[in-house]
Amino acid sequence: HSSLRLKDESKNAKCMLVTSTIPGEGKSFVTSNLALAFAVHGEKVIIIDGDLRKPTVHKGFKLENTKGVIDVCSGKLTLDEAIARQVHPNLDVLPAGGRAKNPTHILNGKGFELMLSELRKRYDRVFIDTPPIAAVSDSLIILPLVDGSIFSIYFNKVRRKAAQFAASRLINSNIPNFGAVLNGLNLAVSGYYYAQYYDKSYKDYYMVKAAKEDQEHDREHGPARG
Ligand SMILES: Nc1ncnc2c1ncn2[C@@H]1O[C@H](COP(=O)(O)OP(=O)(O)OP(=O)(O)O)[C@@H](O)[C@H]1O
Ligand SMILES: [Mg+2]
Questions:
Q1: 36, β-bridge pairs
Q2: Residue having the nearest C-alpha atom to atom 28 of ligand 1
């Protein structure tokens, strides 16, 4: 969140999508948490569930998935009717509204484009959760309509080559990539990995920090399993 606000290319970005290589790399988790971070800092934010195949954003906010993107794009509902308001202060959510049989058609349609341009007027930031790149092209269809993308990578889950290929598809588009979020990395592991690349003093810093956090965690929750 701080990095997005600081970087020249992303600080004024209004509309961003989050994607990954394969399923389960934390896209929805990252989308929701980023959106919340901006909302907490007083910006007016909406999350759109752009994963019309396997929508999950509503679950995180304990909402129903009965109205949303699909209804707005088909003209069945207005944005006002479909948006779930104030799921947190400053944060609204537009669920998928069911599962689409023809997601590509919806995302390519004029309705989706019009919906996004209207949401750009109403909100400071618009975050779109999208399906994984290696599976379907949905996120690449949405890409030309946003100001930038964020790539979620789950540590040790996705094969390096596959992630590189997916990332190259994002980077080779004309839309800026605002960076990648490395998920599922605990501090002990990150200490180990950073130690390979950086100065020894960093190693001590990360190791000490990881050990300290472990102790704190144990004190609060009992020792970690496994
Ligand atoms: N950084 C994290 N810390 C803790 N839990 C996480 C983190 N990132 C993801 N998770 C958990 O991992 C699981 C998968 O994450 P999520 O649903 O966000 O992935 P996804 O990429 O949206 O998956 P899908 O492609 O199936 O939509 C969830 O249970 C989520 O809560
Ligand atoms: Mg998801």
A1: none
A2: 26
Distance of CA 28 from the midpoint of ligand 1 (Å): 6
Q: CA torsion sign, 81 to 55 to 167 to 33?
A: positive
What is the rounded distance in angstroms from the CA atom of residue 63 to the CA atom of residue 189? 35
| Cα–Cα distance measured from residue 189 to residue 184, given in angstroms and rounded to the nearest whole number | 10
Q: Give the ligand with the smallest distance to the CA of 152.
A: 1
Q: Which residues pair with 92 in a beta bridge?
A: 46
SS3 70: helix
How do residues 180-221 score in pLDDT, each as one tens digit?
888 877 655 444 444 444 444 434 433 334 444 455 555 556
127-167 pLDDT, tens digit per residue, is: 999 999 988 999 999 999 999 999 999 988 888 999 999 99
Best probe residue, ligand 1, of 22, 28, 36 (max atoms within 8 Å of C-beta): 28
Which of 29, 57, 181, when mutated, tests ligand 1's pocket best, judged by the most ligand atoms within 8 Å of its CB?
Answer: 29
Q: What is the pLDDT of residue 202?
A: 39
Q: CA 154, 159, 164, 167: dihedral to nearest 10 degrees?
A: -40
The chain-wide mean pLDDT, for the chain, equals 85
Which tokens in the block code for residue 189? 């592991």
Neighbouring-strand partners of residue 179: 150
CA distance 111 to 97: 15
